[in-house]
Every structure is written in C-alpha cells, then in structure tokens.
Specification:
341 residues, binds zinc ion
Length: 341
C-alpha cells in the first residue's frame, strides 16, 4: 500500500510502498477515508515531540472496516468507523480507574505505531468507534483529536452553565471549544486570536471576538467582564505568552486549562494571579473514550458543526501533506487540512 512516512526528524515526509498491516485476532484493518493533518504532526516532523521512527503519522483517522481479526465481533467489513488514537490496554490501574490516557502501555497511532497517512491502518478493535452516516469522514477524523482535546479541556476546566469562558486560539480546537462551551450553557465565550478570518469565524459561532493584535487581550477580557475576568480560560495554541494571558484573564476561583503544546516556560504573579484569586492552572492531556462517543453523538445530531474546522482537503501525497505541515508551523490562517481518500 501507499504510505506517507517520516523516516527521520527534520526531513520531509516521503511516500513509500509498504505492506498493508495484517490484522491480529483482536484487530481491525481500516481503509482510511480521511486523516487530519495536525499541529502535533509538525512537531513530530521537526523533532519537537519524539515519534518512534520510522513511522506513518496520522492520528485523526476515519474510514471503512476492510477486514476483522477472528476474535472481533463488534465490527464487520463495510462499517464506517473512526479511531481513538490512544491504543490502551484496558487492564492497568489507570485504565480501570477511567483515566486511560495515562495507560502504562498506551501507544498513540501515528506516533508510537503507524497511523493514517496511508491507504490502510490496523488497530485493536477496542479503539474503534462506529461513525454514523450523518457524520462525514473528514469530520469524524477531526473529532478524534481537535474536538476531543477541546472537550477534555472544557471538562478539566469544569465549565458549567452560566460560566464565562475565554478560548485562546480559534484553530481546529478553538472552533470546537467555542461550540461545546456554548452547548454547555456558557454565559459568554470570548475568542482570542489575531487572524481577522478566525475572529469572524468565532463571531459567527456566537463568541465575542477579542483581537489580540488590536489590544491587550487580558485588559480587553477584564473590560468586557466588568473587571471580573472569566471563570474558565482555555489555552489551545501552545505559546508561553498566551498561557500567561490565559491565567491573567481568570476571575476569582477561575480555572485555566492548558492544552497547547510547548516546552518553553511562562511566568505569572503567584500572588496577584493565583493565590489572591484561588485560581487554578490545569494541564490537559488527550481525552477519554467516553468523550469521543459524546462528540460523535453531538456531530451526528448536528449540534457540533465541524464544517468550519475542515477548511481544505488534500490528496494522500507527500508534497501536499508537507506543505500543510509547513503552514501549521507558520501558524497560518488555514484551520485544518484533511487528507481525503
Ligand atoms: Zn491531532
Ligand atoms: Zn492501561
């Protein structure tokens, strides 16, 4: 089969011909129909985050079941599915406690094992989720990462009806975060970005746009909340600057959930920003299986609209994928490119 693979960090992805995976007894072989190109993939290519090499990236995958192992009864060939990128054991202490993102044996598809930038991907059946006909493959793919992280961030920030919420970054995660916060009954959602197109998109989704190029977003959020700040703030970009702003935007007892990936430090005033407000800074890692199922339901009922997220589809070709990754590295205005087969 054709696969677009990463051989070594710092080099572009390249097309290779590799054997299609042979499904084991508990595995499902999926014909990939859509695979999202994510900022994480740019990190693996650059070596910012380590992937097991060589590797076929692609952790946002939807497709059709091609074949099932002898022990698989939940699926049959032809089923529409999407894939939980976390392959977990289901048996360790973390899996049993319902925190399977910390599974001691966890592997991520497209990073620790081959993913969806290929014609086929093989995965254990327990990580395969049914995808209703109402949800297009490309939407199913982005549900598995950007929407999943957005929902997990909202849950970690304990957003409830009536809360004010600030979303830093109107990319693939932010578009879902705005809609999910509003579905949850957030009183007002402030969307911080610098791209006019993304700010307009945020406004069309019911958020109050905050242009970080035009004014200090912290001062602007304080002004718009009569000085109180927000109950929850989500950092979905991965920049020290926006992490600091996220924390500084909080109200008394506010929660900042950080989901953007960076190794660089940020600083806040412990007294003014944290102690004096009893504010919380919370890390966000991956998602839960239950959150993926909830998202698929929301998308199938039309409550979560992913059409603004998938702004471009590209073919399964190395040049197109590399240029989409280049664009993500430049924080381009493109929200999300999805490989469509
Ligand atoms: Zn992703
Ligand atoms: Zn486990």
């Amino acid at each position: 089969m054709r696969a677009i693979r990463l051989q070594r960090t710092g080099a572009p992805l390249a097309e290779e011909s590799v054997p299609a995976p042979a499904p084991g007894p508990q595995d499902v072989l999926v014909r990939v129909r859509a695979a999202g190109i994510c900022h994480s993939d740019a990190h693996y290519r650059a070596g910012v985050a380590p992937a097991r090499l060589p590797c076929t990236p692609g952790h946002e995958v939807a497709g059709v079941v091609e074949a099932c192992g002898a022990g698989v009864s939940a699926f049959r060939p032809g089923d529409r599915v999407c894939l939980n990128y976390l392959v977990t054991c289901g048996e360790c202490e973390w899996c049993r406690a319902g925190h399977e993102q910390f599974c001691v044996a966890a592997e991520m598809i497209g990073k620790d094992r081959d993913g969806g930038f290929a014609e086929y991907v093989g995965v254990p059946a327990r990580g395969v989720l049914p995808l209703p006909d109402a949800v297009p493959f490309e939407h199913g793919a982005v549900l598995m990462c950007s929407s999943a992280t957005a929902l997990h961030a909202l849950n970690k920030a304990r957003v409830v009806a009536g809360d004010t919420v600030a979303v830093f970054g109107v990319g693939g995660l932010g578009v879902s975060a705005i809609q999910l916060a509003r579905l949850r009954g957030a009183r007002e959602v402030f969307a911080v970005d610098v791209h006019p197109r993304k700010l307009a998109l945020a406004k069309s989704l019911g958020a109050t746009p905050v242009d970080a190029k035009a004014a200090d977003p912290v001062a602007e959020i304080r002004r718009l909340t009569a000085g109180r700040g927000v109950n929850a703030a989500l950092e979905l970009i991965g920049l020290p600057e926006t992490m600091r702003q996220c924390v500084e935007s909080l109200a008394v007892q506010g929660r900042a959930a950080l989901a953007g990936l960076t190794d660089r430090p940020f600083s806040v005033s412990p007294y003014r920003n944290l102690l004096g407000r009893e504010a919380e800074v919370i890390g966000v890692s991956d998602h839960l299986d239950a959150e993926l199922r909830e998202l698929i339901g929301l998308a199938a009922r039309g409550e979560l609209d992913l059409s603004p997220v998938v702004t471009r589809t590209v073919p399964l070709e190395a040049a197109a994928i590399n240029s989409a990754l280049d664009e993500l590295e430049r924080f381009g205005a493109e929200v999300r490119s999805v490989i469509r087969a």
